Structures are given as structure tokens and as C-alpha cells.
Amino acid sequence: MKHARGFTLLELTIALVLMALMAAMMFGSLSFAGRSWDGGEAKVAQVNEMRQTGEFLRAQLGSQFPLRARKVAEFPLRFAGERGEMRYAAALPARVAEGGIYYFRLSVVQEGDRSLLVQHRVIPEPGATDEPDFSGADRSVLAAGITELRISYFGRDAGAALTEAPTWRDRWDDRQRLPLLLRIEVVPEKGPAWPQLVVEPRQAPEAGCRAWDQARQRCTGV
Q: How far apart are CA 119 and CA 86, in angstroms?
């Protein structure tokens, strides 16, 4: 009867080395798959955030309300726009807070190492003569990881005739008329810039005024 031949030390060593190499390859593949999965989830979350924020701003800015200061000479609009910040009046969905017209400020806010696209909101006082104060205002974070907000305004100079050709500008100074178009560009910390958002306010400035002087383009009564 022949005895079964066992493994030699060299064969056992080679087998162990091969098993270690196979385990290392499997671990590397699993780690790569995990990183790819996490990266895919992060990309999907970023795209969803971009899409939802864009849809929200398009709907709200398109239907913004031409709110006017009732106790100020010539009843100026509650609207002001710079390159990196815009303040405007619009309705807020009842599911977010108590419904009605709010005064908003859209800007990028730095909090520690976080850069956020934030919308502050306050309830405007009908008889106030000063601009609403946003200190202590409620806020909504629309997106995180945002480096820059660039806003452009398409329209005419304050007091210009309607025959003058409108142009794009970095700030809005006309307190009697809203811009014809708003262009919003958002630059995230990572990845390409968001697609440009171009919105046309659907409410004319006359909507917030009882007596509109068409010749002077001024509100003479609210």
C-alpha cells in the first residue's frame, strides 16, 4: 500500500503567496467599486440639488411680486440687485412657512469651512420707510459647496425711455421698474458651473401700483 504524498514546504509557501495576492486583488477591486459607488451617489445628489434649486428659483423669481414702499416718495420697488446678491419680494409656498409675500435675500454665505447658497426671508412691514433688516431672519440653505453666485440684470437705465435698447448689467439701480430678465450663474467648489438660469419676471411693476405714470415711468399712488 502506497502512502499519500503531502505538500512540501515550498509548495505550501507558494500556495499561501498566491492566496495573499488573490485576496489583495479582490480587496483592491472592492475598494475601487466602493469609491465608484460613493462618487456616483455624490454626483447624483449634486445633480438633484442643482435641478431642484434651479426649478425653485425659476418658479419664485418668475412670479416675484412688485412690492412697493408705501410711505416713501415715489413708492420705490422693494427690489435691489448686485453682482453677488439680490433682494426681492415673492410668495413663499405654504408648505415651507406661513404663506404670503416675503422679502428675500439670495446670496452665498461663508460659515467656517462651508460655503452655502442661502435664501434669507423676512415679512416686510407695509409702512416701513427703510429697507427690511435681515438680521435674525429665517433662512433656507438651497445648496452647499458653492464658491460664487453671479447675477446679471437685463434692462434699461433708470428713467430711460422704452425706445432705448436694454443691456445686461451687474447691478440694478432702477427703483421703479423690474429687470426684463434675470441671469443667475452658480459656481460650485467642485465640478463645472451650473447651467445658466435665465428668468423673466412675469409681473409688471404697474401691478403693484394703483396710479402708474406711463410717460415718466413712475408710480404715483399705491
A: 10
Residues of the chain falling short of pLDDT 70: 1-7, 29-46, 93-99
Whether the Cβ atoms of residue 89 and residue 64 lie closer than 8 Å to each other: yes
Q: Which of 40, 47, 134, 54 is nearest to 87 (CA)?
A: 134
Distance CA 108, CA 64 (A): 20
Contacts of 96 (CB under 8 A, 6+ apart): 140
Q: Report the C-alpha dihedral over residues 117, 120, 121, 125, rounded to 10 degrees.
A: -140
Q: In the prediction, which pLDDT does 79 show?
A: 94
Residue 149's closest CA among 192, 111, 187, 197?
187
Amino acid letter, 36: S
